[in-house]
């Protein structure tokens, strides 16, 4: 035990992990292996889809796209294969169940499950977080794709032909923090929350997810602080053509962002009323994108489990992969995981093929 303690202390383990090692050596028989007995191949297809939100074959493809290593090793030397670790994480996110509820399926202690989840989140975020944080990291995101998106939105009734996507903020309710409560309290929502700023394309791809920000921040302030405006200028403004996003009135007009005309609908001229009505219908797509995340992975919508000081709430939300139409709405993934046919509201609304 002494050698194990020394190793984890040098690795920067916290008090909880050190305590786990001590208790593990006191109460658990040393002959018990850390190898998980979980076997995905023994589960029926319907159980896999229900518990992990993906089909059997897609789990293997998701593991390849995420470049998850073949073996996950935690700071306390728990070892599981990469596919098992992915299933543990997806099961945790699929529903607000307790770790102890997952023990019968994976045959691991709650401490081991927690460490595996945290380790895999760390691996995925280290590898793929840049894809969410900066549009310049998306090699596929070019003028040709912007033209494709803009045409799809225009074909569905948008008055302009250069709108390629939609921007909006979402507030995720959290457990009331013991520190900085006022910073995380949203007077508009009337609860404690963190906010994310998302950009969604007409094929359901979430190409940017900035956050998390304290709940009291306004969308316009988040837009300024996120640096997304500069990224949009670099990626969507060309000498002969400029592409724009569409967002709500709180953002304000800019070279890269359009908003509805201000004023009561009945007081606006006919052409402005027509513009607002058309874009309101299309903008629903971004709401569906947010809803898809929490409907498939309800854990992030259960505020009592979203404890800022006890877990990385930001990373839990960003790392979620969900399916929309034939492509995956991927928070943190690249542009490669295709041909999922689970049905998607966004792609159906836009009549666009991924």
Automatic annotation (TrEMBL):
Cofactor(s) annotated in UniProt: a divalent metal cation
Species assigned in the record: Acanthoscelides obtectus
Molecular functions per Gene Ontology: metal ion binding
A Pfam family matched in the record: DDE_Tnp_4
Keyword Transcription on entry: no
Protein name: DDE Tnp4 domain-containing protein
DDE Tnp4 domain mapped to chain residues: 167-301
Keyword field: Metal-binding
Superkingdom of the organism of origin: Eukaryota
């Amino acid at each position: 035990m002494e050698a194990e303690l020394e190793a984890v202390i040098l690795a920067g383990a916290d008090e909880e992990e050190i305590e786990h090692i001590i208790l593990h050596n006191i109460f658990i028989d040393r002959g018990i292996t850390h190898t998980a007995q979980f076997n995905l191949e023994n589960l029926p297809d319907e159980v896999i889809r229900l518990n992990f939100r993906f089909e059997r074959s897609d789990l293997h493809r998701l593991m390849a796209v995420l470049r998850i290593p073949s073996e996950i090793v935690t700071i306390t030397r728990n070892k599981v294969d990469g596919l098992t670790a992915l299933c543990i994480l997806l099961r945790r996110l699929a529903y607000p169940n307790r770790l102890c509820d997952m023990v019968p399926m994976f045959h691991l202690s709650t401490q081991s499950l927690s460490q595996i989840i945290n380790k895999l989140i760390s691996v995925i975020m280290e590898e793929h977080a840049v894809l969410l944080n900066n549009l310049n990291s998306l090699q596929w995101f070019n003028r040709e794709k912007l033209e494709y998106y803009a045409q799809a939105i225009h074909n569905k009734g948008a008055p302009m032909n250069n709108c390629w996507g939609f921007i909006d903020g979402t507030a995720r309710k959290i457990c009331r923090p013991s520190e900085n409560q006022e910073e995380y309290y949203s007077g508009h929502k009337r609860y404690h929350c963190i906010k994310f700023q998302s950009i969604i394309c007409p094929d359901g791809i979430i190409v940017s997810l900035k956050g998390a920000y304290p709940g009291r921040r306004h969308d316009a302030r988040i837009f300024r602080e996120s640096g997304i405006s500069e990224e949009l200028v670099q990626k969507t403004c060309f000498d002969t053509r400029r592409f724009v996003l569409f967002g709500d009135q709180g953002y304000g007009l800019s070279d890269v962002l359009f908003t509805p005309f201000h004023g009561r609908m009945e007081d606006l001229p006919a052409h402005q009323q027509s513009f607002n009505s058309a874009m309101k219908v299309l903008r629903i797509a971004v709401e569906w994108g947010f809803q898809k995340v929490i409907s498939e992975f309800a854990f992030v919508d259960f505020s009592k489990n979203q404890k800022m000081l006890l877990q990385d709430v930001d990373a839990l939300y960003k790392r979620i992969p969900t399916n929309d139409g034939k492509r995956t709405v991927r928070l943190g993934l690249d542009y490669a995981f295709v041909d999922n046919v689970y049905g998607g509201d966004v792609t159906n609304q836009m009549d666009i093929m991924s």
